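Q: Here's a chain of 454 amino acids. Please give me its 3D structure as tokens.
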Amino acid sequence: MRKYFGTDGIRRIANTELTPNLVFKVAKAGAYVLSKHLDHAPTILIGRDTRISGTLIESAMVAGFLSYGAKVKLLGVMPTPAVAYLTRKLKADAGVVISASHNTYEFNGIKYFSNKGTKIPDDLEEEIEEIMDSEKLGDLNAINEKIGTSEYALDLVDEYVYFFRKNFDDDIEKYNRKNFVVGIDTANGATYEVAEKVFKALGIKYKIINNQPDGININQDCGSTHLEGLKKFVVDNKLSLGIAYDGDGDRCLAIDEKGEEIDGDKLMAIISQNLRKHNKLKKDTIVGTIMSNLGLNKFARDNGLEFLQTKVGDRYVLEEMLKHGFNLGGEQSGHVILLDYNPTGDGILTSLMLIKCILEEKKKASELGALVKKYPQVLINAQVNADKKFDYEKDSEIKEQIEKLEKEFAGNGRVVIRPSGTEPLVRVMIEGEDQEYIAKKASEIAKLIEEKLK
């Protein structure tokens, strides 16, 4: 098991767990591992979200990279998918995002992206960890003219805005309606400026909230993890649609004109229909995860589509897509990958695809959202000892209780148990036809896991 990297990079409390010293090591070791595969000093892009600790982590990251001779371009506050896109577009050797995504402000994190704009594979993360903890790290020093340099490249945000104009300008202009107005919630995060630039550039009418970051209000009762405020905003202002991004901008959830949620499963269903209509849905397949609702599975089956499920994590969805040549996949949380555009989840991209679908079909958001009939789903987090969160599979009593419930469901429900990649939690998800019953069973299993894995 890896020591530092989880399912989505390194994520810890800033300056106590994710210390400048640890960040320096991550950067220096990363530059070394990267340089082994190059014949030149690597160029690395760095973007961050709006957390108060962002510049602290950024400074330590830059120092680590420069100490091994890397060249750094600082993008400033930039969504995760923008860093991925620009890394590939500019042919940089790697990209780094400093963010803890949907977590509260006291956390921060580090994600590496390859020159192809994808998250680096597990084996490279393991190699970085090995160097971080080795005595060799102290000897890896650039000297004299080999010391790295850094520069600010804040204007590269315009390249990202142009990416959306290039891909959506014609369709939005063709189908846009005068009475179509979108509510945008940027979660006081990385999209707080660029989302507005994109919507202005495309001529989409909008009203924006939670775009005044102060370093500690990122994701605070707003964004894709707290939809209540946006629901009220959409209904009160009689808007056509609401869009909520998360802290680093790689996720998107939507609210229809009635104030009802359109989650990642529904987004994929809506987008799949539009892509298929234009003969652009490769192999008529959607890739989801084990957390995707049974309703999406049924939608795919009823519409003659293939639906594949991977373990939780957008990297595993992407791996499946790349391996078999699919171009649409994602997670219920709103992390949707549209591989023809960008090899990572992109909240702004997903929202524009949804808007294109609504406008082109000349329908309301609620009509498209009704494509998927959702099964009730309950998710409970069991608090456990961090060192024991993978031990639930070894406990006979836990296994017996899960197997008994699955047998009872007989295909009309599911039990999914998975450890969190970043926190001392085991997530218990149960899906079925009776909300009250599955809530009771999820609570029972979560309680048992907490007792057994203290």
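Q: Can you summarize the key feature?
A: The two ends are 20 Å apart (CA to CA).
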